Amino acid sequence: MGENIPLNKRAKEDGFNARFILLTSQRMKNGMAPICLQLSHRRKVKRYSLKEAVKPEQWDEAQARVKARVRGGTFINGIVNGIEARVCGIVDALVVNNSLSLEAFEKMYRNPKATADVLAYMEATEQELRNDRPGYAIMFRNAVSALRRANAGKPLPFHDLTPRKLEEVEAFLRREGCTPGGIATYYRIIRVAVNQAIKDGLLAQEQYPFETARHKGYSMKRLKATTRPRALEDADIERLKAFPYDEHPLLGCTVRLFLFSYYARGINFADIARLTHGSVINGRLEYTRTKTKRKGEGANFSIPVSAPMQEIMDYFNDRESRYLFPVLKGNEGTKAEVWTRIKDRLQHVNRDLKAVAKALGIKGSLTFYVARHTYATTLKRRGVDVAIISESMGHESVNTTTAYLKRFGNNVLDVADQLL
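Above: the chain's sequence. Below: its structure in token form.
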């Protein structure tokens, strides 16, 4: 039997062994046999092919290497040496993270992104998300950047990501001027990465650094946004409704889009961009919110097309385009291109809204998201029950607002819409 790979002492004590063997029982027609990595742990055995083969007489069983002077032997032994170093690194990480098992080794060995470094792991996740979920990928990138700054650019092993470490990172980010809400955004992404790392065997469940109902750890409860969502006063929304389009023709499209969001229950810009002519069915606007659709929650909205909404849709009506509004061009080939186009258009709209606020004498910051909060606040001012449309709409969690709305039938919400 070949020489064992010199593994971590604690791994050996736990009965974890690794060696390279020549699988002579599976000889090929040319007489060669495959070289394999063989692991054993608690009476279980796992083998991995190195995709290299030699004849039995060319294999040094005692050294677990190809014999000297065998043609191509130096190249194959280089591959074996590299895999040995990788095996030792994986086992070291699993031992430190208290998650040593054949299953955990499998995940790290097979998975190119598997690494004991939090930063490298999250960067690999960002790469995976770029094409399908570009916005989410950027959130990972920003969280990695914050962690790297707080850790002075050094690697951060998962076993070092403790509640104490998270407190130190929070303190660092606060000194940088980051708001509690901003830190919470970073930490939610880090928490997602940690949960996935546990599934990948990179971290033991008992090492989970965040607080849960049954587990003490770092608490995110104090990381709440300190700024209240802005909503327009009744007088300001009336100014927008009576906007002098003739005097400011270049701002007309932006004002109409803002008002459409206000009339359509605070629909966000990304969902407006994706509305098509087929979204209007029997006088109702039917759509599934993009943000919650990814989570499988199926947040389906059915909104009656009011006269103001219809007037705005008629203004933008372009039967040559599949979209109701001129945000997407229709030639975006990938999800990343769609996301980039929506992001760019939203930035343009928000710049226009600054000019709109100046033209109308509206004080304070005016962004597209204000339409969503104004919708909720206006209904509350009109006496609509807070259970139907809550002040918390978009405050801490968009899902909270969605949950409130989903509790009521369309007839209740339709009546509320008439108060706008």
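The longest strand covers residues 44-54.
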